[in-house]
Write a sequence for this structure.
């Protein structure tokens, strides 16, 4: 499945809706989207991941880059992450640097 990403920014919250497979072919495009969308005024970065079926190490590097680009004062939330993608994040320990929650859970 091809990777797709949509970004929306409003009132200090930058939201990405990700779908498909985030791998070495699609990671450069997502990296560029992060570069353009994450601005100093952002207070929160939300990644809607329910439709993301796969994430490679290249995709994980994009999340690390988003974390670095956003800075320490910006909360990062991964919403609705599928178990197989969440496992990749947990195995690296990166889940301790952000919040992972179910799609139906309140922020």
């Amino acid at each position: 499945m091809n990777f797709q990403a949509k970004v929306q920014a409003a009132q200090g919250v930058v939201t990405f809706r990700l779908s498909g497979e985030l791998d070495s072919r699609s990671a450069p495009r997502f990296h560029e989207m992060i570069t353009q969308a994450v601005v100093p005024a952002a207070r929160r970065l939300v990644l809607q991941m329910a439709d993301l079926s796969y994430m490679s190490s290249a995709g994980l590097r994009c999340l690390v880059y988003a974390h670095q680009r956003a800075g320490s004062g910006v909360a990062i939330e991964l919403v609705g992450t599928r178990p197989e993608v969440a496992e990749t994040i947990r195995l690296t320990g990166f889940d301790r640097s952000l919040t992972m929650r179910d799609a139906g859970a309140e922020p």
